[in-house]
C-alpha cells in the first residue's frame, strides 16, 4: 500500500507540473521485497508491473502480483 501511495504521489506531482514543452506523465511499477527474494526477482516484478501500467493506458501506478 505504501508503494502504491508513493507512486501515486509521484505520478500526480509530475502530471500537475507546468512543463514548458509539453505535458509529461509517468507510469510506475512497484514491487514489495519478500523475505528470501533476490534483488533480480524484485526488479523483474517491478518491471512487469511497469509494463502492465503502460499496456493499461499509461500514467498509472501498478503493483506487482504477489509472488
SSE topology:
Blueprint lengths: L1 H15 L11 E3 L8 H17 L5 E3 L4
Parallel strand pairs: 1-2
Structure description:
This protein has 67 residues and is mainly α. It has 2 helices and 2 strands. A two-stranded parallel sheet has the order 1-2. The chain is elongated and about 45 Å long. The two termini are 16 Å apart.
Low-confidence segments = none
Count of alpha/pi helices: 2
Report the strand count: 2
Determine the structural class based on helices, strands and strand pairing.
Answer: mainly alpha
Element-by-element helix/strand order: HEHE
* Mean pLDDT reading: 90
- The helix content, as a percent range, equals 40-55%
Largest sheet: 2 strands, parallel
Biggest sheet: strand arrangement: 1-2
Strand coverage percent: 5-15%
Judging from the principal axes of the Cα atoms, what is the shape?
Answer: elongated
Through-space gap between termini: 16 Å
What does the oligomeric state look like here?
Answer: single chain
Radius of gyration: 13 Å
List the main descriptive attributes of the protein structure presented here.
single chain, 67 residues, mainly alpha, 2 strands, 48% helix
Tell me briefly what this model is.
It contains 2 helices and 2 strands. It is mostly helical. Strands 1-2 form a two-stranded parallel sheet.
Amino acid at each position: 500500500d505504501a508503494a502504491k501511495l508513493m507512486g501515486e504521489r509521484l505520478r500526480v506531482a509530475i502530471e500537475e507540473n507546468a512543463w514548458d514543452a509539453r505535458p509529461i506523465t509517468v507510469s510506475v511499477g512497484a514491487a514489495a521485497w519478500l523475505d528470501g527474494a533476490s534483488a533480480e526477482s524484485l526488479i523483474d516484478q517491478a518491471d512487469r508491473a511497469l509494463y502492465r501500467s503502460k499496456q493499461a493506458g499509461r500514467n498509472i501506478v501498478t503493483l506487482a502480483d504477489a509472488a
